Amino acid sequence: MASSLQRLFLELQRGLRRPLQPPCDVDRLASQPELAAMKRTLTWSCVGTGTQVQEFIRVLAARTSADELMVATPAFDVGRRLRSYEIVAEALAALG
Questions:
Q1: Model-level pTM?
Q2: Of 5, 39, 45, 42, whose CA–CA distance to 22 is shortest?
Q3: Whole domain around residue 11: which residue ranges?
Q4: Based on the domain organization, do 7 and 30 belong to the same domain?
């Protein structure tokens, strides 16, 4: 699922504007400089289990003193996209 975001980033960097594409092996599509730029830009992106998402949110809030969180899930599969929002909601509920 994360490769949809990576592919979107790569295509935007290349000036391509098209609908979200299905997951793929982004490492095979991108050059090393493109992969490095993607890694830097997506540093504060989170992909993982509910527990990992909860820990990510906790660390992000502590480091930034943020009192709001914006969540965007550019996932090609709508069911997976909805599930990602459920995971975030569960993580936030657990954090109180």
A1: 0.80
A2: 5
A3: 1-43
A4: yes
